[in-house]
Amino acid sequence: MIVKEVIDFLHTIAPSHYQEDYDNSGLLIGDDNATVTSVLISLDVTEAVLEEAIEKKSNLIISHHPIIFSGVKRIVNQNYVQRIIRKAIKNDLNLFAIHTNLDNVYHHGVNTSIAQKLGLHNIQILRPKMVDGKINPEIGAGIIAELPQSMEGRDFLSFLKENLNLSSIKYTNLLEKPIKKVAICGGSGRFLLQDAITHNADVFVSSDFKYHEFFDADNQIVIADIGHYESERHTIQLLHEILTEKFNNFAAHLTTINTNPVNYFI
Q1: CATH of 3-101, one of 3.20.20.70, 3.90.1070.20, 3.40.50.300, 3.40.1390.30
Q2: Is the pTM of this model over 0.85?
Q3: Of 36, 48, 60, 84, which is the most exposed, with the fewest CB atoms less than 10 Å away?
């Protein structure tokens, strides 16, 4: 089994051309003709993740977030990105990222997976994406779905915290109505807030809202900011399930490294 075969399969789930223009998914470092020894799956690529891959003899690291986002003008030891590039090349590691293209698919997608963890019904894409000149209802950003039964605001926050294993939630004022319709975007979802309001969502579950952006809820919706890492960490398990259902001729490992750069003092 070579790297290209694994990548080609993953691109049948989330084709590379579904990624956003700013993204840099795909094989970032390595040789797509290299034989796969084993795979390590992680949300991010850090120096600790590289060490783990070397220990596990995994020469293919599949991450959600790309380690290279913008142009790299030199590869020395000035920052963690440059150190990771150097170390990956020295150790013949192949680094592949599947980011917004995995966000933008309905089946096996990041946001659908969150909705399923919460037991939501009637799951649909929140902002369908234009593909080949047509709006495709199964490709696009975020999801809109419904709870089986309405919940009071605080009950929903407790439900969210328990089911997604959260230590904290930042949220706007609760409205004087129960929560039934839920919009979700894993990662940074501010750009979908108006879509959530337009679709009459009662709550928008996402992350990375800045202070003044919470005001944009404007008593029309509840914003529940659960943290970037927290909203996407389940992606590791999602990718593991996708790979192990398809391949049985190499081991696929889940990282044991918590790559979240944000700590909470509680």
Answers
A1: 3.40.1390.30
A2: yes
A3: 48
